[in-house]
Amino acid sequence: MGRPVYNADEELTLLKRVLQLHGEFRSSLESIRVTPLQAGVFLFLRRHAEANVTDAATALRVRVSTLSEVVNDLVRKRWVTECRPVTDSRVVHVRLTRRGTVLTCQIERRVGRLNTWGFYEVTSI
């Protein structure tokens, strides 16, 4: 089972749609002042209650240092909390706060609206 083969016109159409969806996703988050990467962190934490930064970075396909900066900003805004286990202080677990949980619900509703516009249709190709 290999990669699908597209002709140049199909690839250009797919690229245009992906860029359009990215813009729509970014626009849908502007009113709640959340970036797409922050939204990814919220959605990941919603499904993984006590994830560590490394696991979240791996899942979101960003460097740990990049995600650490994002998490620090979310902590400052009181949307997530960090805790370090007594057994290994190098590990940082991240959890949504109540405010973060409310915001995550708003993000999920906005992503759901994008889904009705064909958001997941592109990713299933």
What does the secondary structure layout of this molecule look like, with pairings?
Layout lengths: L7 H23 L5 H12 L3 E2 H8 L3 H13 L3 E4 L9 E4 L1 H19 L2 H5 L2
Antiparallel strand pairs: 1-3, 2-3
Structure overview:
The protein has helices at residues 8-30, 36-47, 53-60, 64-76, 98-116, 119-123; strands at residues 51-52, 80-83, 93-96. With 125 residues, it is mainly alpha-helical. A three-stranded antiparallel beta sheet has the order 1-3-2. Helix 3 (53-60) crosses helix 4. The longest helix has 23 residues, at 8-30. It is globular, with a radius of gyration of 17 Å. The chain starts with 7 loop residues before the first helix and ends with a helix. The relative contact order is 0.16. Mean pLDDT is 83; it is low at 119-125.
The N- to C-terminal Cα distance equals 13 Å
What is the chain-wise order of helices and strands?
Answer: HHEHHEEHH
Q: Main beta sheet, described?
A: 3 strands, antiparallel
From the spread of the alpha carbons, the general shape counts as globular
Structural class: mainly alpha
Provide the CATH architecture: Orthogonal Bundle
Uncertain residue ranges:
119-125
CATH class: Mainly Alpha
Strand content: 5-15%
The proportion of residues forming helix, as a percent range, comes to 55-70%
Tell me the name of the CATH homologous superfamily. Winged helix-like DNA-binding domain superfamily/Winged helix DNA-binding domain
Task: Indicate the mean pLDDT.
Answer: 83
| Count of individual helical segments | 6
User: What is the domain total for the residues?
Assistant: 1
Task: Name the strands of the widest sheet in spatial order.
Answer: 1-3-2
**Rg measurement, Å:** 17 Å
- Tally the beta strands: 3
Topology-level CATH name: Arc Repressor Mutant, subunit A
